[in-house]
Every structure is written in structure tokens, then in C-alpha cells.
């Protein structure tokens, strides 16, 4: 286990060194209104019931937060100041940022003694001082890399005011493969992690949402769960981006990630 963890740390260091060369990332790291400060992170350690909602980007984190807020009436949070949807500049006591009374403006903020759900993409990007605070539970949502990769590619390209190609460049594919491997292996070795597959949640959201809320420590009625699912239903589909990958792309993914994907019940038939 030690050697595996060491390997993850080395990959993480290399990956974040690469990211640090990106001026946009550097700007984020230097902006305390986006990532907080060491003093704020130290004070946040007093919050006892932190639950990380850990996902590789484009794996359902925002959808899950909408559902949790609708079912509980309690706002969720993020380790960094997200801009879509817009989070407030203020750092909350647990260490993180929130939308103004939640995504839709009608949620209350958590109080000391109850759980707070905090979004993280760590170690995909290590931006915030709030990424590695003590937590009682982590809920990892894992999605088939085919869908996460192309969705992330489109998201990055559109943020650069460019037009995405039908097939992503292989340099981006290989970058995503490396970071997906890093992310999943980190949470495989972390303690107190509940892993839920996005595809299972997509196909049967109500029982999985009930389980997730129970793990967080929120007591809600079945009626509230059903209301949340009706208001924020699954959208899109499973493996909806498969046609954007060439046979060579799929062979690369299978070669690099096949054994890990199999661990999570994912396959690429024929490759």
C-alpha cells in the first residue's frame, strides 16, 4: 500500500507542477477570494462533521448538490469559489464557499454540530486550502471515463472561447487519462469513502439519494427525496459521448485504464 500511495503522490506532484505553469491556475492560487487562506483553513478544522463530495470533473457533482439541497433544505459547499453557479466571496466556518442560500436561494446554511457537504475535485487540481481538512465521510461519485473525458474537454474548450472538435486531441485524452487514474487511486486508498457509480445513480436515483443522505447524516422523508428527483431528474444518457472516440482512442483508454475500469464495473467491449 505504501508504494502505491507514494506513486500517487509522485503523479500528483508532477501533474500539479504542470498545472502551475497555466497562468489561469496561477491566478486562482494567488486569489484568496477563490481559495481561502491558511488561517481560515486552520480555523475550519474546528468543524466536526465535514463530508466531502468527491468527483472527477464532469461526473455529477453539481447534480448531486442540487438534489441534496432540494431534499434537505440545507446548502452545500465547495472547497473553492465556484463561478458556475456563482458562489459567494465569503468563506464559511467549515472552510469553503456557498451559493447565496444554496443553488436556488432558499436553503439554510449548516450549523455547527450537523454535517456539511463540501464539493472537491482533489487531487485533480489542488487549488484550495480547504481540500484536505478532517472529514467524517467522503462520497465519491465515479462516472465512466468516456463521458467524463469528452464532457471535460468541451467544458475546457468553451471556457477558452473556442469551438470543440468532434474528437478531442490525443494530448488532451492522455492528460485526462493520467488525471483520472490519479484521482481514482487517491480515493481508493482514502478512509471512510462511499463510492457510487454515476450510471447506477442515473438509472435509479431515489434509493441512491436516500443512501447518500443517510451516510451524510441527514434525516429526510421519502416524499422529500421523490420531490428532489422529480425537480432535478437525470439528463442526457449513459455513454452518450462514445461516438466522439476513435478506435485508437478507445484502445488507448483500455490499455491505460482497463484494469482500473474493470474494478468499478466498466468495460469497453472489443478493446
Please tell me about this protein's structure.
The chain has 271 residues and is an alpha/beta fold. The chain has a single domain, classed as Rossmann fold, CATH 3.40.50. Helix content is 48%, strand content 9%. It has helices spanning 2-20, 23-29, 32-35, 38-44, 61-72, 145-159, 170-189, 198-203, 205-216, 222-231, 247-263; strands spanning 50-55, 77-78, 116-120, 137-142, 193-197. It has a five-stranded parallel beta sheet, with helices on both faces. The longest helix has 20 residues, at 170-189. The radius of gyration is 18 Å and the shape is globular. The protein starts with a helix and ends in an 8-residue tail after the last helix. The relative contact order is 0.16.
Structural Rg: 18 Å
Q: Specify the helix fraction band.
A: 40-55%
Question: Please, what is the CATH homologous superfamily?
Answer: P-loop containing nucleotide triphosphate hydrolases
Order of H and E elements: HHHHEHEEEHHEHHHH
Outline type: globular
How far do the termini sit from each other? 29 Å
The SS-based structural class is alpha/beta
Summed over residues and divided by their number, the pLDDT gives a mean of 89
Low-confidence stretches: 1-26
**Tally of separate helices:** 11
Q: Which fold name corresponds to the CATH topology?
A: Rossmann fold
Number of strands: 5
Would you state the CATH class?
Alpha Beta
Q: Assembly state here?
A: single chain
Amino acid at each position: 500500500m505504501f508504494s502505491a500511495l507514494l506513486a500517487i503522490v509522485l503523479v500528483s506532484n508532477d501533474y500539479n507542477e504542470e498545472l502551475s505553469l497555466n497562468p489561469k491556475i496561477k491566478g486562482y492560487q494567488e486569489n484568496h477570494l477563490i481559495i481561502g487562506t491558511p488561517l481560515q483553513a486552520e480555523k475550519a478544522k474546528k468543524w466536526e462533521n465535514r463530508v466531502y463530495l468527491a468527483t472527477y470533473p464532469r461526473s455529477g457533482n453539481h447534480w448531486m448538490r442540487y438534489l441534496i439541497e432540494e431534499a434537505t433544505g440545507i446548502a452545500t459547499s465547495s472547497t473553492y469559489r465556484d463561478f458556475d453557479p456563482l458562489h459567494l466571496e465569503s468563506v464559511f466556518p467549515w472552510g469553503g464557499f456557498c451559493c447565496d442560500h444554496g443553488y436556488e436561494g432558499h436553503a439554510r446554511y449548516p450549523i455547527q454540530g450537523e454535517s456539511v457537504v463540501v464539493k472537491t475535485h482533489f487531487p485533480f487540481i489542488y487549488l484550495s486550502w480547504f481540500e484536505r481538512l478532517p472529514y467524517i465521510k467522503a462520497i465519491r461519485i465515479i462516472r465512466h471515463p468516456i463521458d467524463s473525458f469528452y464532457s471535460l474537454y468541451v467544458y475546457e474548450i468553451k471556457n477558452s472561447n473556442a469551438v470543440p472538435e468532434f474528437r478531442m486531441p490525443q494530448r488532451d485524452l492522455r492528460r485526462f487519462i493520467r488525471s483520472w487514474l490519479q484521482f481514482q487511486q487517491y480515493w481508493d486508498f482514502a478512509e471512510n469513502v462511499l463510492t457510487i457509480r454515476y450510471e447506477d445513480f442515473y438509472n435509479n436515483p431515489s434509493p441512491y439519494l436516500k443512501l447518500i443522505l443517510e451516510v451524510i447524516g441527514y434525516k429526510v422523508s421519502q416524499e422529500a427525496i421523490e420531490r428532489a428527483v422529480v425537480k432535478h431528474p437525470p439528463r442526457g444518457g449513459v455513454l452518450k459521448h462514445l461516438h466522439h472516440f476513435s478506435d485508437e482512442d478507445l484502445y488507448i483508454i483500455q490499455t491505460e485504464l482497463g484494469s482500473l475500469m474493470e474494478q468499478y464495473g466498466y468495460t469497453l467491449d472489443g478493446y
